[in-house]
Design a protein that fits this description.
Oligomer: single chain
CATH topology of the largest domain: TIM Barrel
Distance between the termini: 69 Å
Strand content: 15-25%
Number of domains: 2
Helix content: 25-40%
Radius of gyration: 21 Å
Number of helices: 15
Bound molecules: zinc ion
Shape: globular
Number of strands: 21
CATH class of the largest domain: Alpha Beta
CATH architecture of the largest domain: Alpha-Beta Barrel
Structural class: alpha/beta
CATH superfamily of the largest domain: Metal-dependent hydrolases
Length: 439
Amino acid sequence: MTQVDSIILSGFIVTVNPEFEILKNHCLVIHNGQILAILENDQTQYTSNQLIDRTEHIIMPGLINAHNHAAMTLLRGYADDMGLMTWLNEYIWPAEAKWVNDDFVYTGTQLAIAEMLKSGTTCFSDQYFFPLACAKAVDESGMRAQIAPPVIDFANNWAKDAQDHIDQTLALAKQYKNHERISIAFGPHAPYTVSDQPLTDIAALSKQQQLPVHIHIHETAFEVNDAVEKLGKRPLARLHELGLLNKNLQAVHMTQLNDDEIQLLVEHQVSVVHCPQSNLKLASGICPITALTKAGVNVCLGTDGAASNNDLDLFCEMRTAALLAKGTTGDPTSISAEQAIKMATINGAKALGLSAKIGSLEVGKQADFCIIECNHLNTSPMYNVASSLVYSTNSAQVSDVYVNGVCLLQDKQLLSLDETSLMQQAKQWQLKISQTSST
Ligand SMILES: [Zn+2]
């Protein structure tokens, strides 16, 4: 028998392989951070000191949150029940100008990682200031992330102009070039906050260095109409002219799309990141994911920041995405449970350029996965595993989470972060921020 790092016995393994196989009574054999084999539970080829019995559980690929501003957990509930531009101009941007620094980002990102790990997320895409503080939190926690520092025309606490944002992103990309869990992307904030020259530079640098580009685009009808009025063209057409439409582009939100634009996304293999709860909460609009999926566009899921969601729970996001697609099209077959799971796993990996490593449970991939308890009232009985995960599981049923073969959540206990201390630190930030806001 061959000795391996760990063997995890399961009730079901939702592989999310191309055939979407769901294997009953199988185990994951893990060695050197990778999936070495997937076999029946009673296999006798391998042995391990870490033989873990999860036969009353489901193992699925770790969820991938393809759009987040992790540190904004510290502004969770700071301003709600208003439209995007009021929310940004009158609340979020002034609060960020006053409070955002290395400490804010480090603590806020740790708080976000703790919440994400406990709800089954193993990888997230982040777009926020002070990305070194974010990278430090990711590195220490054992989590996986794509970090896309923002590029924005105006000065802020982190950078003085668009060029400074780009230079700092390039330095970060150099520093993390060979990190096994952290990848770097450009994160131009939105077409209305970044002018043509920096966008053109980003297009060229992205191509030259093979770095993805992550951008909020067509988030609201106002954004599109305002661009037409001021520039005579829709934002997506402008990005096309500037050379940004290609398989490295991660287009976040996309609530306003006509048929020609959907075709443009197909032709250029652009990925769309759907953030249904944030779009609903800000009444920004609804991304037409049924049409996009039918056309062949890669659609994945993001929560957006906790200030506009207000949680980082991808189980909620999967369910909302499936229900919203049915409700808006009037077609109950639109976005099946299986499609919702793909959006939260393999499609996210494709969007981030990481599908060779993560997104499904297949031999040779990195061992990033979560384990879900089945023995709960809300998931009994369980006729269909995929349906149970999307329509009745809640994230409190996540018992264990592994990234790169390393256990980060064991029996619902975080192993690399101190939950109690994080909640105390969040409380201290809340007191500080709310005291000065009211004066
Ligand atoms: Zn966002």
